[in-house]
Structures are given as C-alpha cells and as structure tokens.
C-alpha cells in the first residue's frame, strides 16, 4: 500500500466524515444516550431499597451502550453507503484507484473517530451515574478500582468495534437502509436465538455481541460461562476484521 496514497485517501475521508451533518448527530446522540442512561440509573437508585452497590450502579449506568452501539454502527455504515447513495464513490475511486487503500482509509478514520466517541460516551455514562448518586449512602465506583476502569474502557472499545462492523457491512451491502437493518439484526437476533436454549445457550451466547456487552464487557464481573471482558472485546474486534475483509474482497471484485 503506497504511503502517500493512503495519507491522501485518509485526508479525504477525514474531510468527508467531518463535513457530513449526520456524522455529528450520530456521535452526539451516542454520548447523550450513554449520559442520559447513566443519570437515569443513578436517580432511580437514590431511593432504592436495599442500598445499591457500586457494581450495580456501574453495570446499569453503562447500559446506554445498547443504543450507542446502534448509533455508532449506523455511523460506520453511512461512511460507506452514503457515497454509494450519492454516486460519489465513483469520484473517490477515480481519485484513489486502489480500492483497498480507500477501504483502509475509511477503516482508519472511522475507527479512530468511533473509538474516541465510544470512550467519551462510556465515561459520560459512568460520570453521569456517579454524579446522580452524590449525597446518598450508595458507595461510589472509583476508576482507581481495576474492575471499574476495565469495564468503562472496554465498553468504549466495544462501541468502536461496532462502528467498524458497520463499515464492513456497509461495504458488503452498499445500501444504507439494508445495511443498517442487517447490522441491527446481527446485534439482536442472535441474542434472541441464544435465549431460546435457556442456560444451555450460554455456550452460544458468549459469542453474541449484545450478550457480551451486557454480561461480560460493561460489568465488573462477567457472569459464569462467559468470556472475560477483554476476551469479549477482542472477539468484537475480530468480528470487525472479518466484516471489513469480506467487504474489501467484494469491493475489489465488484463494479462501483
């Protein structure tokens, strides 16, 4: 991959990413969703009996990631499908003929932006929950505790990986509505299927994105049978890599 060509493509992608209004709306909405959930959880626990634990507050404060993953996933999709919808993809490929360079630039720019927004959203959910319980008997969840910090950081990583899965799906499907629908289905349908098997479904459920988020990544202690949080986060990154590689293969062998 030519270094200059990649830098040129990445600069183009940064300009396109920051100049599209929907990008900003989706990023802001992801942070607001996390912060709003955190604040709502904290306020709900202020008068809760018995007194909530620090782990309960943290686990539930990060629950806004359910919505944030869809918003950032949609952002990843639109980075690709938006160009197909307007026909701009032809101009992009004319300016940078090497298609893998184009996709690599989209992945780098989207990945960096989504990881930043994901971490910001995760910390927003955590802080909002902590601020909402101030002045109560509920113990604070300190970022000085490894389990607390790990959950917050890995939630941000999960959200960034979801955006890259969106890039891969967008490259494969090329239509915004269909790609976003596919992304939503991949996030929710496997969880429903795994739930049909009851406790025995845990062997399948530990590979399901949403179950990993709620029971392994955004928690201080994963439920028995699920992967450790960092393993689940790496698995999400693996899913993103597979989606992008499949998209890259099709991008190289299909007409624009």
What's the SSE blueprint?
Blueprint: H1 3-19, H2 21-45, H3 54-61, H4 65-86, H5 88-95, H6 99-132, H7 146-173, H8 176-195, H9 202-205, H10 209-217, H11 229-253
Helix pairs in contact: 1-6, 2-3, 2-4, 2-6, 4-6, 4-7, 4-8, 6-7, 6-11, 7-8, 7-11, 10-11
Strand content: under 5%
The helix content, as a percent range, equals: over 70%
Q: Which structural class fits the helix and strand makeup? A: mainly alpha
Tally of individual helices:
11
Computed over alpha carbons, the radius of gyration is 19 Å
Question: What's the quaternary structure here?
Answer: single chain
User: Gap between N and C termini, in Å?
Assistant: 20 Å
Biggest sheet features: none
- Overall body shape: globular
Low-pLDDT segments: none
Order of helices and strands: HHHHHHHHHHH
Q: Got a strand count?
A: 0
Mean pLDDT: 92
Structure overview:
With about 260 residues, this protein is mainly α. The chain is built from 11 helices and no strands. It is globular and about 65 Å long. The mean pLDDT is about 90.
What's this model, at a glance?
78% of the residues lie in helices and 0% in strands. It is an all-alpha fold and 256 residues long.
Entry keywords:
256 residues; mainly alpha; 11 helices; 0% strand; globular
